[in-house]
Each structure stands twice: as C-alpha cells, then as structure tokens.
Design brief:
Layout lengths: L1 H14 L4 H27 L20 H24 L2 H20 L20 H30 L3 H26 L4 H24 L19 H30 L9 H33 L4 H28 L8 H35 L3 H14 L1
C-alpha cells in the first residue's frame, strides 16, 4: 500500500507541469477575491459607495500627509514588486520571505496611516478611518481590491514564467486584465456618482473574475493531473455520450447561475421608490430575477438528477453537486429575506435591525459568488474527469515529454 502511494505521488509529480507554490498562490487569490466580493457587497448594503468621494486616492491621499510615511511606503512597495519578480525568476526562499515582509509592511502602513477624512463642511476630522463605519467599508474595500490586484499580477507573471500550457498562461493574462478593468469600473462608478449601469457592471465583472481565478486554482492543482478515472476506462461504451451530456448540462447551469447573478446586480442597483414611478421599474427587475431563479432551479435540478443517477460513484462530481443544492436552498432563503427588508421603510429602524438588513443582503451576494464558483468547479471537473481516455493519455505523455 505504501509503495503504491509513493508511486502514485511520484507519477503525479512527474505529470504535473505546474509548481505547487503557484497553485497555493492561486488559492490565496481565490480566498482574497471572495473576501473582496463580500466587502463590495457590504459597501452597497450600507449605501457607502460615496463615503469616500474621490478615486484612486481617498480624500486626495492614500495615507496621512506625512513625507516620511510616503517615502517609507514607496520603498516598501518597490521592494515588494522587485523581490516578487525576482522570486518568480530565481526561485529563492530569501527573496520570497523578503517580498512577503515588504508586502506586510505596505499593508500595515495603509491600515495605520489611512486617509484623513473630512466633515460635510470641509473641515478635517480627528477620527481614524476605521472608526467611521461607511468610510471603513469603502476604504477597506479599496485596500482589499489593491491586495487582490497585486496577487493577480504576481499570479499572472508566475503562470507566464512557469506554466507550459499556453491556454493557462492566456487565462492568467485575461484574469489580470479583468481585475484592471474592474478597478477602472470602480473608479468610474465613484466619479459618475454611482450610475446603476456602471455599478451593476462592476458587480457582474467581479463574479466573472472570481470564476476565472477559481478555474486557475483548479487547473493548477496536482489533483488535476492525477490519474483521472473516465467512464470509457471502466469499459462502459456509452461513457463518452453520457459524459458529453453531463458537460452540456454543466455549461447550462453555469450560464444560468451567472445570468441570475447579473439580474441580481441589476436589482441591487435599482432604487425602490413607489411614490415617483420607480416602483414599476423595480418590479420589472425583481420579476426578471425571480424568473432567473426558476431557471436556475430547473437547470440545477436536471444536473443533480443526472449526476445522482449516472455518476454517483464519482465523488469529484457528487460533492460539488451536493454543495450546489445546499447553496441554492440557502440562497433562496436569503433572497426572500433581502426582498422583505428591501420593501420595508428603514428610515426609522434601529441600528440592530439595519445590521440584519445589511447582513442579509451581503450574505445573498456572497452565497451567489459561492454558487458561481461551485458551478465553475463542477463544469471544469466534468470536462476533465469525463474526457476521453485517449485525450487524457495524450496530455500525460505530452507533460512527461516536456518535463
């Protein structure tokens, strides 16, 4: 048993063309992107999108107006970039440790020496930015976004330097361009005073970027190159047809979930004001969102039935399907709660009740992101696990030749 395990690990390491540290970096980027989506949802739930009225700086400054702090921040940022790039090309542990320490120093400066905010009359306040809820939400969102941008830049450079698969390198580049476009959309949203179309596009692109980094994390995993069991290898002649059918269902489910996320962003950025006719517009948006939910239920149910009936012996498919069903139920409950709070007059609410309203709306966004990630994981896994055996063997042989 031990010999078989060692042989399997050795074979997997020989076939896997991606260094493990790249996969770990991709996982960290996935985690930070999910935190970023939650933070962005919290900004919208609080109505804090204009709590910091300028961009790319906050109140005209990234930190307190101190030359010493500015110089230290510049040196640390330059050191982080230089050491990270040197680590990618040289692969030295000392360089990696130095890059991490410099990055932590940059994060500490941005946290401790955040922007000095101003009152409505233009006079500066003595409070730190994290003591003001709306400024904390918006400026914190920007700090997390900057962290994700740096991680994605390093990940894209790492893939371009170490990855042998051209499609994966291109996916890393597209994801980096997506996070740059996302930052620009965020700035346009602030400068244009939160236009609904731009704000909704900002939220939709965030979910698409999340799906990209999840895909990168999956396809750089050592398990991706492990001995993938296919139906045709088990002697089932109908295996290829069954696999192709499941793959089509996965694509439909992914498209349905992402479409529903886009409809949800349109609902969140449509104001509900019954007295001036905006209630009719909101009703159209919420009606489309409910119709999208029914379509998601239909596609996910068909997908789950197909997997349970024909692929119950494949844990790599059963686990994400089970998670998707659980998330769908949770999302339905959160959607009902969000709609209930949305239709209420919250102007006279106590702070505790407002907290529950914001928590429900933000959780609705977070679970939607998890559904996108789970469906993407399931789709990629289905295309990998149910690929023809000859195709998998060709990939393995090509990887062994390159190594």
């Amino acid at each position: 048993m031990a010999a078989d395990t060692i042989a399997s690990q050795t074979q997997s390491a020989a076939v896997c063309p991606t260094p493990r540290w790249v996969h770990v970096l991709a996982l960290v980027t996935v985690g930070m992107t999910f935190i970023l989506i939650c933070a962005g949802g919290n900004v919208k739930s609080k109505g804090a999108g204009l709590a910091v009225p300028d961009w790319p700086f906050s109140y005209g400054q990234p930190f307190d107006r101190s030359p010493a702090v500015g110089a230290l921040l510049t040196y640390l940022a330059a050191g982080t970039l230089f050491l990270a790039l040197a680590w990618i090309f040289v692969r030295g542990k000392v360089l990696a440790a130095g890059a991490i320490l410099c990055a932590l120093g940059v994060a500490a400066i941005f946290y401790l020496y955040g922007p000095q905010s101003f009152r409505a009359d233009g006079t500066p306040t003595d409070e730190r930015w994290w003591h003001m809820p709306n400024v904390r939400a918006e400026h914190g969102h920007r700090l997390i976004a900057g962290t994700v941008g740096i991680l994605m830049a390093v990940l894209a450079a790492s893939l371009w330097q170490t990855e042998r698969r051209r499609a994966v390198r291109k996916l890393g580049l597209v994801a980096f361009l997506a996070v740059v476009a996302q930052a620009v959309l965020g700035g346009v949203t602030v400068h244009m005073q939160l236009p609904p179309l731009v704000s909704a596009s900002h939220g939709a692109l965030a979910q698409a970027f999340f799906a990209m980094v999840v895909t990168i994390a999956v396809i750089t995993s050592p398990r991706w190159f492990a001995s993938a069991q296919t139906l045709s290898q088990n002697g089932d002649q109908s295996g290829p047809a069954r696999g192709a059918s499941l793959q089509r269902l996965c694509v439909w489910a992914l498209a349905a979930v992402y479409l529903q996320v886009m409809l949800g962003t349109s609902v969140r950025h449509t104001h509900y004001v019954p007295d001036n006719g905006r209630g009719v517009e909101f009703a159209w948006h919420i009606g489309a969102h409910i119709a999208g939910f029914l379509f998601v239920c239909h596609t996910v149910a068909r997908l789950a039935v197909r997997v349970i009936r024909r692929f119950a012996e494949v844990p790599a498919l059963m686990r994400p399907v089970t998670a998707l069903l659980v998330l769908l139920g949770v999302q339905m409950a959160l959607g009902i709660g969000s709609l209930f709070f949305r239709l209420q007059d919250s102007t006279q609410w106590a702070q505790t009740r407002l907290f529950y309203k914001e928590l429900t709306a933000t959780s609705h966004v977070a679970v939607g992101a998890l559904m996108v990630a789970t469906t993407m994981f399931l789709t990629v896994t289905a295309f990998r696990r149910l690929a023809p055996a000859a195709e998998l063997q060709a990939h393995a042989q090509a990887a062994e030749v390159r190594s």
